[in-house]
Amino acid sequence: MSGDHYRVVLPDLTFYQQTVACQFACPVRTDARAYVTAIARGEYERAYLIARETNPFASTCGWVCGAPCEAACRRGKIDAPVAIRALKRFVNDRYGVYLGETGEPRQPPAWPAYTGPTRAFDLGNTTLPTSRSGLSAARQPGDKTGKRVAIVGAGPAGLSCAHDLALLGHDVTVLDAAPVTGGMLRLGVPEYRLPRELVDLEIQAILSLGPGLKLQQALGRDFTLADLRREFDAVFIAIGTYKSRRLNVEGEQLDGVLRAVDFLINVNLGGYNLNLGRRVPVIGGGNVAMDVARTAARLGHPVQSGGDLEVALDVARAACRLGTTQEVHCLVVEDRHEMLADPFEVAQAEEEGIVIHNHVAPKRILGDHGRATGVETLNVARAFDEHGRFNPQLIPNTEKVWECDSVIIAIGQTGELDWVRPEDGLEVTPRGTLVVDKETLMTTTPGEFAGGDIAFGPRLIIHAVTDGQRAARSIHAYLQGVRPRLVRKAFFTPISKREYPNVGPLRGSLRWPRRQPPALPVERRIGVARVEMAFDEATAREQGGRCLICTLNPIFDGDLCILCNGCVDVCPTDCLKLVPVSALAGDAQVAAVIRLRTAEWPTASAMLLDPTRCIRCGLCAARCPTEAVKMESFRFTEEVIFDPQEDVP
To answer: Are 154 and 213 a contacting pair, CB within 8 Å?
Structure first.
């Protein structure tokens, strides 16, 4: 409310899309509300198909996604968000390619038979495209375009692009410098957080669509962009960011100073001997720093290369518990609430004995005979300036030395671009990323596209998947001479009073607290043992029942309203308010409606709805004597179709 006026907006498609906050926040538009609700009702196979609809790495995201859907979840404004990621894991472990704790591969539920390029099938309240990618192409399944595409990088961005390009009929070859597929899923994410068997199975499902794979093929070493141009019709660069940022302090070159990415890659590949010693400070406060710290705590003793990594880690962790205490400290410039790491990850690290120190900044790394022996720090008054920019204010004369046997620097990553040649025509940003068109992801060289971390810097896995899908659409459009067009559709389905109890939030759901997935006890977290466990069925259904089902909306018909105020009186959250139209204010569209209504009825009234407080209980609709208020179910679809160039104005 501003002064004596209420600022209002008139609901349009975008308004209703944003109301379904979890789906709108998801970069690939996964309908989290739909699969969460399906889990609450015990419809697990339906939930799996919905979760898998737009994301070829749905099972992986169930384990390690940063979950922007949860950050947007409207239930979080009441108490705590719905545990969307954990529920995705529950249903994918049950019906996906990977069977929970046993790791047994299996065939997931089959999709309905393909009967046309744009046909959709109905699963209750949700319509899923049979392409599984939101793509529609004017061709029959199995048709080939005759075009060849090279994808450099077998991480989530590259493989998502390969997935969609294969569905669109292109001949795809994926090349990667590593001896294994998965990119940072395998090389950067610790195995205790993400089972390698799961990554393998999801990648096998993508490769089964037809893409070829060449490993240990490095751009700049084994081939150049010029080589790819001669052999392929288009190129997608998705090589990630594997170069750790430097501190630029004295002593950074000493032995025993490790880079976060190098450290994780060598642990995950079972590389060279690692002897961190007993005292290990980790510099950084992001999720990578937490992964590094927790992995370091699981090592701490020499790991012989060529041996069984899991057994070696088990022995090392057991030795720690038997008295050789590992000291791992995180030195963080930011305050606790400013840390980039997920609070849950920070809590897990502390539970495992990692000590977090906030508002300290490294001044230099001390050494003796060429090896690091300590980190000297200064206290930090504040990490960000008055404009919100990272600009630490150091406090003089507050030096402190943290003795160490090794130091791991985890302050971010940048791209390694030594392979870029002047004749390639690629423009590079000061951040060490490639310049791309934000819509098409094409680089400054026609026919060459880039996405994922190498184009935008380190982000969430789901963002990499999105980039791969966007690149596939742009590459298809480039090769076929067509234009991609995003078609958005909205559907409202009226719900009768008799039907409503079966589709609305479960009775008593507001009393159910959010539960975290169960975790393995600290004393049993040996080596690569999984830390986070899956929900059991009863807990999953309860947690799914916390969803407020934001696709339900009270819809008001002013012509039927008799101004009895019954809906306002019965509303348990006070989200409705009846006010004079003269008390409203808004944009030009709102002003036009006010002028129209007050010209017809000088004393007209308006019903205001605060959608952030509405819990979709339906009491307003049940109370209304004239059915001026009805509950209607909203859903939206976004589909990319390709138009011939000549048909597009």
So the answer is: yes
Distance (Å, whole) CA 528 – CA 190: 8
Look up residue 17 and give its two tokens. Answer: 């899309």
CB atoms within 10 A of CB 149: 30
| CA-to-CA separations, 461 to 219, 362, 416, 545, in angstroms, rounded | 22, 30, 19, 27
Higher pLDDT, 17 or 398: 398
**pLDDT over 90 for what percent of the chain?**
52
List Cβ neighbours of 317 (8 Å cut-off, separation of 6 or more): 298, 525, 526, 527
Residue 339 vs residues 64, 358, 461, 593: alpha-carbon distances, Å? 18, 9, 19, 46
Query: End-to-end alpha-carbon separation of the chain, Å?
Result: 44
pLDDT of 157 higher than 60: yes
CA distance linking residue 467 with residue 440, whole number of Å: 10
Distance between CA atoms of residues 48 and 92, nearest Å: 6
Q: Per-residue pLDDT averaged across 319-336, rounded?
A: 72
For 280, the token pair is 């290990």
**Kind and range of the H or E run holding 490:** strand 482-495
Mean pLDDT of 290-298: 88
Cα 562 from Cα 566, distance rounded (Å)? 10
Q: How many CB atoms lie within 10 A of CB 390?
A: 10
User: What count of Cα atoms within 13 Å lies in the side-chain half-sphere of residue 540?
Assistant: 24
Read off the amino acid at residue 400. Answer: K
Q: How far is CA 181 from the centre of its chain?
A: 20
Distance of CA 394 to the CA centre of its chain: 34
Contact between residue 402 and residue 377 where contact means Cβ atoms under 8 Å apart: yes
Q: What is the value of pTM for the model shown?
A: 0.84
Give the C-alpha separation, 603 to 465, whole Å.
53
Across the chain, mean pLDDT equals 84
Max intra-chain CA distance, the chain: 89
Convert the pLDDT of each residue in 390-419 to its tens digit.
Answer: 999 999 999 999 999 999 999 988 888 999
d(CA 467, CA 92): 23
Strands 360-368 and 355-358: unpaired
Distance CA 469, CA 477 (A): 13
With 0-12 CB in 10 A as exposed, 13-18 as middle and 19+ as buried, what is 332? Answer: buried
Grade residue 317 by pLDDT with cuts at 50, 70 and 90: very low
| 411: nearest Cα among 378, 359, 342, 362 | 362
Cβ atoms of 57 and 202 closer than 8 Å = yes
Q: Considering just the CA atoms, what is the radius of gyration of the chain in Å?
A: 27
